[in-house]
């Protein structure tokens, strides 16, 4: 006589196995849920050209693996397009300005820069672009100085200074090139990181969402507003004298003011921390010596002091105060206790960006601990 199993015994074993599998799945789901709960959601907002995308790329370089060779090479066409766009803007701008201004000699290529024509010609030939434009690039005597009016991208000077290298047949972009490359964000991109390194114990993990800043992209923002731990709002303070790409009658700083005001008033952000990046300080520092803040309607009441470094700090503090006033005016009494921090940033400065995110991490940690 051998041993035997009844049908009920077999069913019992089967049920036990299924129950074990189900319990295992439940445990995994619970673990994943707990892990999700420990991931803090950051939303990166701002108008177009505010420097959000550069901040996003810096996070990848600083707190992740950076860009591999394939990713770097994928920027070749973007960088070459940036160069072409720059030269075309200056070419068209020079023609237009020479027709409306008395001293048209300012808008012809400088004799000191004749040697730069060949690299441009080489690059354009390689790209199959109109080589005639190579006589109209950013070292025109006067055209480059009118960059704000002509909607010249911030990357223009950097790429023009590196034309010889960009025109090489075996050109491979550097990390610095990628940071300068101008690409408009379409849709939503995200990245997960820890400012102290995910391998270190106690390090908080963040998931940063970046969305397009142009007006036609902002309708996508609302879907990301729920469950946000902190909003990082980028304001390009150097753009106080510039107009929008999508609306050349609208000052960029006024657009930023109105956008920041709108974001602050969203009900879902009542208890949400706000981190304001007053970005592009490096450009602001150079521009404020030549272009007065008062060209912007929001800054009409600004009173300059002596030129130099002291004036730069004075102007920056004035702009900072304007944003602080806007924050408190736009925040209801029951919202003013949410965390609000302002950071002076230059998105291209890796050390500064790293320091800033470590400060944000510390601030949010203290807030969660109630200290």
UniProtKB/TrEMBL annotation:
**Ranges for region Disordered:** 1-25
Is the keyword Nucleotidyltransferase assigned to this protein?
no
User: What domain of life does the native source organism fall in?
Assistant: Eukaryota
* Chain sites annotated for binding GTP: 49-54, 179-185, 210-214, 279-282, 347
Please give one Gene Ontology molecular function term for this protein: G protein-coupled receptor binding
Residue spans of biased composition, Low complexity class: 1-14
What positions does the entry give for Mg(2+) binding?
53, 185
Q: Which Pfam families match?
A: G-alpha
User: What name appears for this protein in its UniProt entry?
Assistant: Heterotrimeric G protein alpha subunit
Which keywords label this protein? GTP-binding, Magnesium, Metal-binding, Nucleotide-binding
Q: Does the keyword Magnesium apply?
A: yes
Q: PROSITE patterns in the record, alphabetically?
A: G_ALPHA
Q: Which GO terms describe its cellular component?
A: cytoplasm; heterotrimeric G-protein complex
Q: Name one GO biological process term.
A: adenylate cyclase-modulating G protein-coupled receptor signaling pathway
